[in-house]
User: Which sequence fits this backbone?
């Protein structure tokens, strides 16, 4: 029996720069930046790369629901504008990617669009309990 090593899930929680609108930031981060960064990310063997967009309009309703409906008054909904997630075989793949001169150049542009003074990393293994439960959609 062979065992497989789980992929490492690496989340980068990003705030936009105060100088640009959320619409401009999301357009750049989900449409412009991926065209430039995608080939480089693939070159370093990153298995999967996604973005989770967190619109400002979702935050306050969720905060309110947690406090009033869910009984979680001390829980928070962070103000991240975007979470970019990489699935890796090894953290060395991410280290190699971020050391590449092309990546360093891309990050210079990202520093203009993002507020790099704050942010958050989450690193671990994803445990999937079910996936693709589309048969019950709309039921």
Assistant:
């Amino acid at each position: 029996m062979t065992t497989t090593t789980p992929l490492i899930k690496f989340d980068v929680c990003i705030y936009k720069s105060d100088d640009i609108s959320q619409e401009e930031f999301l357009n750049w981060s989900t449409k412009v930046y991926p065209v430039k960064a995608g080939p480089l990310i693939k070159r370093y063997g990153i298995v999967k790369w996604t973005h989770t967009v967190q619109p400002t309009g979702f935050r306050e309703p969720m905060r309110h629901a947690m406090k009033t409906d869910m009984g979680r008054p001390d829980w928070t909904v962070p103000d991240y504008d975007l979470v970019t997630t990489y699935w890796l075989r090894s953290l060395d793949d991410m280290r190699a990617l971020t050391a590449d001169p092309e990546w360093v150049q891309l990050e210079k542009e990202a520093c203009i669009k993002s507020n790099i003074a704050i942010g958050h990393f989450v690193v671990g293994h994803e445990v999937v309990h079910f996936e693709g439960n589309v048969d019950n959609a709309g039921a």
Observations:
- The chain has a mean pLDDT of 92.
- The two ends are 39 Å apart (CA to CA).
